[in-house]
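re: ur question from earlier - yeah i can do the single chain one, its not a big deal. heres the input i used so u can compare w yours
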Amino acid sequence: MSRLLYEHSVSYRGYLIIPFAFQKISDTPPGIGYRQHKVYSYKLLAENGSKDRLHKAENPSECYGDSVESIVNLAKEYIDKNLDCIGKGDAFKCRYTYRNNLIIISQEAGKYYYDHYPPESLNNIAAPKIFKSEFDCISWIKEGIDGLHFKRRVG
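and the output i got, formated as tokens:
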């Protein structure tokens, strides 16, 4: 699996649909005129977290697409046909992609916190930290990611 394409993620009915390039296939042998095509799949994050059977599920519809748009539409169809409850709000509306990482900012009682997913997995690596503003939260996260990026380049 290649990295998760967070920048193409779509929030839909309590889920975040996250596409990724599942496989590359070619229609000609290597050489002149060699063309590769990508086959796309998706993963889901659920607004309700681990309480939801589809939280962090990989392609429960078992369908694949030839574009990001087609796989997102297939995921929406699956959600429409198979789920009883709809998310109450949009828990994913304040999401950002930074250096291929997914950052989801949440607010409760005037305090901000975040979820942080690296490019290659849906393992939340956020620090348990509370912030006074969304800006403070984003600034702190960017500083941490930039520090990791710098260490990897030097080391």
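Strands lie at 10-12, 15-26, 36-46, 95-98, 101-108, 111-117. not sure if urs matches, ping me
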